[in-house]
Amino acid sequence: MDLHEKEKMYQRLIVFTLFIGMFIYYFEKIVSFLGWIGTMCLPFLFGTGLAFVFNIISNNLMRYSIKWFDFKDTKIKRMISNILAICIVLAIFAAFVGIVIPKILFSIQTLLTNFPQMIYEFYIWLLDVTKNVDVVHDFLKNLDINAFSNSAIDNVSKKISSWLVSGGANDLFGSIYSILSTTFSWFAQVFITIVFSFLLLFNKEQVVRETKSLLMAYLPKRDYEKTRHVLKLIIRIFTSYVGGTCTECLILASLVTTGSLILKIPYAFLVGLVVGIGALVPMFGALVAALLCAFFIAMTDPIQGLTFIIMFICIQQVEGNFIYPHVVGKSVGFPPMYIIVAITIGANIAGIIGIIIFIPICSCIYQLVSEDVLSRLQTVREVSD
């Protein structure tokens, strides 16, 4: 190494050290700035995600439905499929708001009204079941069941209401101006998100074309091909995961609701919604949601709670063996043991959203690393031969 190369290496080392030092010294300000940038870009990120969902539906319409119609112009087919995709999502949302939500609210109201009586009946049932187990029976007899009475729950509700109305909630809600400004800001962000998703959906070809041109202009050919391969892999995995998971959640929620209605299990729409939302978390999300629902059902009728668990196990077996392989399949390509790692990391970083998003992200990383490992092993074999 000559003197000129050593000077360049030392210069880079000094610049890198200064950069690390500045980053550590201004860490809080950098994090605050990045948070401000993230908050500002949040509507566009959600808009991109919403446009991605619209595009999945639109592509399926182009593939299976729109081809039945004799349109020679692809742009007209794409426009019609985009409009139909938006109409389908709006129709599902309208049906959910107009039909499902009232039934869910009625179930929640009934649950809250009957909660003290449910607790009492469940308590009596436990006393009867455990009468031969002296330790548990004596422990249950010493419990203060009056803590769950109607008057106690009403007192708690009144205390919460008075706290919200009084000055105790001033620090939480702020002034009327703050509430109005926050509400307006929320509606503005929702409006920006929806408008941006529509613009991105109907200008998808232009966005793809400009992105390709940008990558070709600033990247060498080899790096361009690698970047294009990575982007295709990310789009394929996210499309398969988001589309398949949402479809599977809808199917599972519909099956649970239908089965509950047939077997006359209480809170059918509510338990269907809870299980459907829980199914967004792979592996054990639906099971945890079903156990929670079974617990509340068992407070009303223990036999019905047991019936619900048996029904859910049967539905999950049918769904896991016949529906899930055709809807989601193995397109995500991620081993179960790594799914647990992805769920844990995602939950600690971003909660429920992190759990949902980190699985396809980690799947992309896993497949890219697997491809690189196979490529390097192939190179080693060729050299050794």
In short:
This protein has 13 helices and no strands. With 385 residues, the chain is mostly helical.
What does this structure look like?
This protein has 385 residues and is mainly alpha-helical. The protein contains 13 helices and no strands. Mean pLDDT is 77; it is low at 163-175.
Fold blueprint:
Layout: H1 3-25, H2 27-65, H3 74-129, H4 134-141, H5 150-165, H6 170-173, H7 176-202, H8 204-218, H9 221-262, H10 268-278, H11 285-300, H12 302-327, H13 336-384
Helix pairs in contact: 2-3, 2-7, 3-10, 9-10, 9-12, 9-13, 10-11, 11-12
State the helicity in percent bands. Answer: over 70%
Weakly predicted, low-confidence segments: 163-175
Secondary structure tally, helices: 13
Instruction: Give the radius of gyration.
Output: 28 Å
- Derived structural class: mainly alpha
